[in-house]
Each structure stands twice: as C-alpha cells, then as structure tokens.
Write a structure and sequence with these properties.
about 290 residues, nine-stranded mixed sheet, about 35% helix
Length: about 290
C-alpha cells in the first residue's frame, strides 16, 4: 500500500486514532476517529467519502472541521485500505454489502461508547447513494444527513462500459485507470478537482474498482424513498460535470425533508470554506431541538 493507506493523518488541535474494524468473516475496514483537543459539546459527524476517495482530497475540510467536532471517517470496501482475507468476487461490491458494513461499524462503535444515537451523517458520491439506500431500508440512521453529489444511477460512457466488462488480464487494469484519468480531465474544468481525481485514481486497488464498476453500471436507487424522514441536504454545483443535476432533482423530489444547497463547485465542498454551508445546516437542526 502507498502512503495514502498507512496510519492516521495528524490534524491540528485534535487527537486521532486509526481503527481496523471487522465487518464480516473475511473483511475488515479502516476507520479514522478524531477528537478535538479541546472538548466539544457539538454532535459528532459520521463521514463516508466517495468511490475510491483518498483522505488527502478531504484534508482541508476535515482539518478545520475536527477542531470543533468529533469526526468518524469510514473507508469503504473498494478502497485499498480494506482487508479481504479471501479472494474477492464481484458480488462483494453490491450496495447491500456496503450498507451492512456501515451498519456494523456504527453498532460496534456504539457498543464501545465511541458513538451514541446522536450523530450527523456526511457523505459523498457513491457513499451518499449508499447512505440514502440504507436510510430508506432503515438499516442506517442519524440525526440528519448531508449528501455531496449523490448518484441516483451511475452513468458510464459506452467505451468505458465495454472496457469494464471485458475479461482483461490484471496487468492491463492500470492502463484502464490511465484512460479514466484522461477522460475525467477532459470533462472537468477545475484544476483542483482534476488533481484530486488524478490522485484518487492512481491510488486504487484496480481489481476492486473494476468489480465495483461492473456492479454499479446496472444499479439505481429505489424509486420509493419515502422512509427517509430525517432532515437531509444535498450540496450541489452546476459546474460539476461528473455528477448530474438529474440525480439531484430525482433525489430531492423523492425525499420529503430535503434541502438543496448550491455551492460554487465540487472542489469547494472539499475545502474549509464549505463549513459555512455545512455547519449552517447542522446548526439549524441543533437549534430547533
């Protein structure tokens, strides 16, 4: 593993811990827990970053955020930090498995008094889709939830679908990643977002990403999302060409207690400045108790 997957990142004015939590007989996931150095009475955040996301892309936001709130940061099973004891299969990357992972991590942290029932959810991309589906099935819960660029379905270009489905040997997978980087950089205008996606794609376990992509090509959220009752918000930017506004419109229409918060760009949501919008949403909920 490269240095994206080694040890807990040190953040200012906080105390960090790395946990490896077993979620099934053959899988353990990495979880970071940061506590503010100065005790805070604010409600903790359970944060699940997006598909293949590496922490460095979230460092600016979390470095500021952790000074005021406890942050629990979960790395999902397609990431290189996940530990599979047995040979992986495509069925290991279906949405129900992701939902169960998060459910089991929450249960374990609650048993160990690291977390109680009072926490906010924050997620991005694929992780937002997982949380939405988990909330609908009532397998995941929280006080409220913010979603950054959630997906109702995953739209791969035709050429990508063909390459992902082909039974190519493992040594060719790194070339598929390079093609994906080229495609993303053609579509994304913001330099910061280009750097973040390039770093993310180059840091992957290529076989896991292929298995995950093969499943996601045929996945879509349930049509009925009426079970989601907690206050929710979507952070979205019209400039974000990788995450469509159609998905935002679908989800915001299907979830009753949903706000849509416009932000300047997807990259902005990874910066400390985004706490203005994020904390405003959470603070409104806390003040209405």
């Amino acid at each position: 593993m490269n240095n994206h997957w080694q040890g807990v990142p040190e953040l200012p004015n906080s105390i960090g811990e790395e946990r490896i939590i077993r979620v099934s007989d053959d899988l353990s996931l990495r979880v970071f827990i940061w506590e503010p150095a100065n005790q805070s009475s604010k409600i903790p955040i359970l944060m699940v970053p997006g598909w293949g996301s590496v922490f460095e892309g979230w460092r600016p936001l979390v470095s500021e955020w952790v000074q005021g709130r406890k942050i629990i940061y979960i790395e999902t099973r397609e990431k290189a930090s996940a530990i599979f004891d047995n040979k992986m299969k495509q069925k290991d990357f279906i949405i129900s498995e992701y939902i169960e992972d998060i459910e089991k991590i929450i249960e374990k942290l609650q048993r160990e008094n690291e977390l109680d029932d009072n926490f906010h959810l924050f997620s991005s991309s694929l992780a937002s889709t997982i949380i939405i589906h988990g909330l609908q099935e009532k397998k995941i819960s929280g006080k409220s939830s913010i979603f950054l660029a959630p997906n109702q379905k995953f739209r791969f270009p035709l050429w990508a679908k063909i390459l992902i489905k082909l039974p190519l040997p493992k040594f060719t997978l790194k070339w598929l990643i390079k093609i994906a980087i080229w495609a993303v950089e053609r579509k994304v205008e913001e330099e910061g977002q280009k750097i973040r996606y390039r770093r993310t794609l180059l840091s992957q376990n290529y076989e896991r990403i292929r298995y995950s992509a093969r499943y996601l090509m045929g996945y879509s959220l349930p049509e009925d999302l009426s079970n989601i009752e907690i206050p929710c918000a979507i952070l979205t930017a019209e400039s974000d060409k990788l995450h469509g506004m159609k998905d935002v419109e679908f989800i915001s229409r299907k979830v009753t207690n949903m706000s849509v918060i416009s932000i300047p760009s997807n990259q902005y949501a990874h910066q400390a400045e985004a706490l203005n919008e994020i904390e405003s949403f959470y603070s409104d909920i806390e003040s209405n108790e």
